[in-house]
Design goal:
138 residues, alpha+beta, 3-stranded antiparallel beta sheet, 13% helix, 24% strand
Length: 138
C-alpha cells in the first residue's frame, strides 16, 4: 500500500513539473551559438581617415635645420646644494623611527626637498643626497 502511494506521489509530481514546463525546454526556440557576438557589428574600415586628415589635404611645414650648439658655448649646470636640515627631535628606538626635521615629522623613506631619509638613529639622520649617503648629526 505504501509502495502504491509513493508511486502515485512520484508520478503526480512528475506530471505536475512537466505541465509547468520544468521537465523539458521549449523546442520552438532555436539554440543560440555562444561564440557569435550579441551586439551588431559596425562596419568600419580600420585605416580610414577623415577627409581633413588624408595625406593629399594635409600640408607639411618646411623643415628648417638649425646647427647644434657648440660644446664650448654651453654653460655647466650648477650642482644643487644640500638643503639646510635642522633636527629638533628623534624617536629612534622603535619599530617606526621618526624625526622632526625643519618642523616636520618625517619617517625613513620620506623626502625633504632633494634629500631622502635613509636611516634614523640615536646620533641623527642618514640621508641620500645625489646618490651619496650623508650622515647628519643632531
Amino acid at each position: 500500500m505504501v509502495k502504491k502511494i509513493f508511486i502515485f506521489i512520484f508520478l503526480g509530481l512528475g506530471l505536475w513539473n512537466s505541465s509547468l514546463g520544468w521537465a523539458q525546454p521549449a523546442l520552438d526556440t532555436p539554440e543560440r551559438n555562444p561564440f557569435e557576438p550579441q551586439l551588431p557589428r559596425a562596419d568600419k574600415k580600420p585605416n580610414s581617415l577623415p577627409e581633413k586628415l588624408k595625406p593629399s589635404s594635409v600640408k607639411q611645414p618646411p623643415v628648417v635645420l638649425k646647427p647644434a650648439p657648440s660644446v664650448s658655448s654651453a654653460k655647466p649646470a650648477e650642482a644643487p646644494k644640500m638643503p639646510q636640515l635642522l633636527i629638533t627631535g628623534l624617536v629612534w628606538n622603535s619599530d617606526r623611527p621618526q624625526a622632526i626635521v625643519n618642523g616636520q615629522v618625517v619617517d625613513v623613506g620620506d623626502k625633504i626637498e632633494t634629500v631622502q631619509i635613509v636611516a634614523i638613529n640615536q646620533q641623527g639622520l642618514e640621508v641620500n643626497f645625489m646618490g651619496n649617503r650623508v650622515p647628519i648629526k643632531m
